[in-house]
Amino acid sequence: MYRSRTEENSMNRLKRQLSLWTCCTLLVLPFIMTSPSYAQCTMTSEQLDKVVASCGSGDLDCFVSLAKDNMPCAANIAWYFMIMNAPDDPNAVLKRFLSAVPYSYTLEKNLKDAVHWADIANRNEQKAGSETSANEYPYGQ
Predict the structure, then answer these.
(1) Which of 12, 41, 60, 119 is at 20 to 30 A from 139, Cα to Cα?
(2) What are the domain boundaries of the chain?
(3) Closest listed residue to residue 96, CA positions, set 58, 125, 122
(4) C-alpha span between 118 and 71 (Å, rounded)
């Protein structure tokens, strides 16, 4: 019938922890539910080719609009633009993509990586082309 002091302290501590957990959950839950989350792109390369086919060659605005409408695939769309157009200023391209999509650390990092690696691939391809004679095929004639 009588509870010991230790049992009462345990019960009070448990009630405080439960109240604290409930309060924190109720405060944080709206932020979690309304924050943008970006899943991994599920588009196949064939689907991506079809989507970007609607954009003209070098039409950055079109590609940026596609990325805005398909945020999980924004990095793939940026990479595609970079590879197909090999722009002189990759930072300008990156800024355009970043300004069009809402901020997300993951999305920003993915866009930066995509533009960076596509730019490196473009430079490597240009370097390889400059080291090859004009009438020399890379795999022989």
Answers:
(1) 119
(2) 1-35, 45-130
(3) 58
(4) 19
